[in-house]
Amino acid sequence: MIHDDIGIWSEIKLEIVKEYASAYSRILSKRKDPTFHHVYIDAFAGSGIHVSRTTGEFVLGSPLNALAVRPSFREFYFIDIDDIKVKSLQEIVEPREDVHFFGGDCNDILLNDVFPRVRYDQYRRGLCFLDPYKINLDWKVILTAAQMRSIEIFLNFSTHYLNRAILIRKRSNAVSEDNINRMNEFWGDSSWMDIAYRQQKTLFGHQEEKITNRELALAYQNRLNKIAGFEYVPEPIPMKNSMGTVVYYLFFASNKPVAKKIVEDIFKKYRTRGFS
Question: What is the CATH classification number for the domain harbouring 12?
Answer without folding.
Answer: 3.40.50.150
